[in-house]
Amino acid sequence: MNLTKLTILEARKLLDKREISSVELTQSTIDRIKKIDPVIGAFISFDEDLALKQAKKADQLISSGSSYPLTGIPFQLKDNMCTTEIPTTCASKILKNFIPPYNATVTNKIYDQGAVLVGKGNLDEFAMGSSTENSAIKQTKNPWDFNLVPGGSSGGGAAAVASGECMFALGSDTGGSIRQPAAFCGIVGLKPTYGLVSRYGLIAFASSLDQIGPLTRTVADNALVLEAIAGNDPHDATSITTNYLTNYLDSINEDLSEIQIGIPTEYWEQNIEPKFKSSLKTVIETLKDIGVTLKEISLPLTEQALPVYYLIANSEASSNLSRYDGIKYGYVASDTKDIWETIENTKGEGFGPEVKRRILLGTYALSTGFFDQYYLKAQKVRTLIIEEFKQTFDTCDVIIAPTSPSVAFPIGSKITNPLDMYMNDIFTQPANIAGIPAISIPGGFHNNLPFGIQFIGNYLSEKTLFKLANAYEKASSFTLTNNIINETMENQLNKL
Amino acid sequence: MKLTTDEVKYIAKLSKISLTTDEIEVLRVELSQILDYFSMLEKVNTENISPTGHVVETKTTLRKDISTHSPTNREDILSNAPNRNGDMIQVKRIIE
Q: Which residue of B has its CA nearest to A304?
C-alpha cells in the first residue's frame, strides 16, 4: 500500500484501527520527500527528526484512544506562517534564518490536534506572484510536467500535496495564491471568508486581503482541515466574531437541489483561449447532471477588479514590508555609512525584483498628490464590487467560474512581463476584494494537464461550497483519488 | 502615464530602498505600463461612494489593554537581531 497517497479520512481510519502508525506514515512521507523533492522543490525546509518526534507523540495519543481528526497526519506549512522550531523565511533573502519567537495561531491549532509538521513550503517571495518563480530560495516544479510552474504563490504546498509529499498543506491566498496553484496541480484549494481563519503569525502581505486556507487532495479532506483552523482569535482584530458553522464535513452530502448557480458572462466569455474554453464548458454539463439550477448572470466590474486588487494589495504591502530594516531580525547590509543607508541597502539587497516593484507601486499610490487618484479610488471601486456581489447573491447562491485563464504555463514564460503575470489572477482576486469564500477543485483535463473550476459563495457560505464541490468531485472523478489519474502522476514521478 | 527617472528615484527614496541604475530604468518602464493599465479605473463613476474599510465586520474589535500572551523568551527575540550588544540590539548612531 502506498501510504503517501491516502486521503486524510482514509489514513484516519487506518491509524485509529492501529493498522498503521503515524511513525510509519511519517517515515513513508519522509522517504517520498527525499526521493522526489530534489527535483520538485516543494519544501524550503524539512526536519526529519522533528517530524518523527511529533509522530511518536501522535501514536501515543492514538493509543490512549483520544485522537483528533488530524492526529498523526503529515502536513506542510507555507513558509510565511510562523513556527518556533523551524526558520520562517517567506522565501526571501531578507528573512533567511529568521526563527519566530512565537507560533502562528494556525500552527498551534494544528499542533493541538497532534498533526505532524514535515516541513515548510516554497512560495513566491512574501507570497507575491502566481508561479513560485519569485522565490529567492528555489524553483518549485509542477509534478504533472517538470517544465511547468506549479502556480503560486502557494506553489510549494500544491506541488507537495499533489505529489504525495504530505497529506495536506496550509497556504495563504491574497489574490488567488491557494486556488490557482491548486488548479495547476490538480488538487482542492479553499480561500475561506475573510476573518474566518486567524491571520496571527501569518507574515503580512496585504492585511485586508490575506486569508489562510487548506490545500488537499479531496473536498472532504479540505472540510476537515478547515474545521481545525477556523474560529475567532483574540490575537487577530479582524477575526470574525459572528456565528459561523464548523461542522462542514457532516453536511457535505446534503441535498443540493435547491441550489441556484450563476454563470457570470464576464468570466466565461473573455480572456480565454478558445480550445481551453471548450474544455472548461464540459464543467457546465456535469453540473446539469448533478441536478442544480444554472442561470446566466453578469458581473460588469470584473475587469476593473484587477487594478483595484493590485492598488490595494501593493499599498498595504508597502506599509507592511517597511518593517524589514535590518535592525531587529533578518538580513542586514554591511559597510554602510549611517542608519539610513543601512535601511536602504538592506531592502535593496534583501528584496527580490517583484517585491521591490510592488513596494514602489504601493508607495506611489499612497504618496501625496496620487492618494486620491489611485488608493482612494481603488477603495471606492472596491465598495462597488462588493455591492455587485451582494446583489448577485440575491439572485443565486453560488457563482461558478474558471480558476485561471489557462492551465499551468512553462517556467520562464511570463516572469519577464509583470502585467502578463498579473492577468493570471483575473478570476481569483475578486473574491479577495469582497472577502467572500471561494474553492477551486479539479474541473477536468486540458492538453493532459489539470484545470481548476471555482465555486464562489456569499460570506460564510463554506458549507454550501463544500457540498457543491463534493457533489462535483463525485460526479466527475477528476481528483488524484481516481486510480487512472493517480497512475499518470506516479508514472511521471517514477522518472525521478 | 510616463514616469521619469527622477520620479522613480523619488519613490525609491520614500520607500527607503536603494536601487541600481539598471533597476531604476527597468522599473521606470514597468511601473509606467502598469499605471497605464490601472488608469481604466478613472472611467468608473464613484461619485458619493464611500471607500471600503472592513469587508465583513462593521465595528472594530476592541479589548482591554492587558497582555494576552504567555511571556516570550527575551533571548528568542534578541537572538534574531543581526547586531547585538549583550541584552541590547545595536544600531548605528542616529543623532550626530
A: B41
A3-263+393-493 is classed CATH 3.90.1300.10? yes
pLDDT digits (tens, 9 = 90+) for A274-291: 899 999 999 999 999 998
Task: Establish if B69 belongs to a structural domain.
Answer: no
pTM of the model: 0.97
Residue of B nearest to A338 (CA): B92
Interchain CB contacts (distance < 8 Å): A and B? 166
Range of the domain at B30: 5-43
Active site residues of A: 78, 153, 177
Grid coordinates in use for B32?
Answer: 509606467
| Chain A nearest CA to B25, separation (Å) | 12
CA torsion angle for A317, A323, A326, A327 (degrees, to 10)? 180
Query: Measuring CA to CA, which residue among A437, A430, A432 is closest to residue A464?
Result: A437
Q: Give the Cα separation of A364 and A425 in Å (integer).
A: 22
Bigger pLDDT: A166 or A273? A166
Cβ-proximal residues to A407 (8 Å cutoff; 6+ apart), any chain = A184, A276, A446, A447, A449, A450, A451
Residues of B in contact with A378 (CB under 8 A): 41
CA–CA distance, A10 with B86 (Å, rounded to integer): 52
Q: Residue ranges per domain, chain A?
A: 3-263+393-493
- State the CATH number of the domain containing residue B28: 1.10.20
Choose the closest CB to A195 out of B8, B20, B57. B57
Please report whether residue B32 resides in a domain. Answer: yes
Query: Looking at CA atoms only, how far is residue B85 from chain A in angstroms?
Result: 13
Q: Is residue B86 part of a domain?
A: no
Q: How confident is the model at residue B71 (pLDDT cuts 50, 70, 90)?
A: low
**A337-382 confidence digits (pLDDT tens):** 999 999 999 999 999 999 999 999 999 999 999 999 999 999 999 9
Q: Out of B49, B77, B83, whose CB is closest to A101?
A: B77
With CB atoms and an 8 Å threshold, state whether A347 touches B35: no
Indicate the residue type of A130: S
- Any domain includes B93: no
A110 residue type, one letter: I
Contact in structure between A62 and A159 (CB atoms under 8 Å) = no
- The count of structural domains within chain B is 1
Query: Contact, A124 vs A114, CB < 8 A?
Result: no
Alpha-carbon gap, residue A102 to A265, rounded angstroms: 46
Residue A339 distance to chain B (closest CA, Å): 5
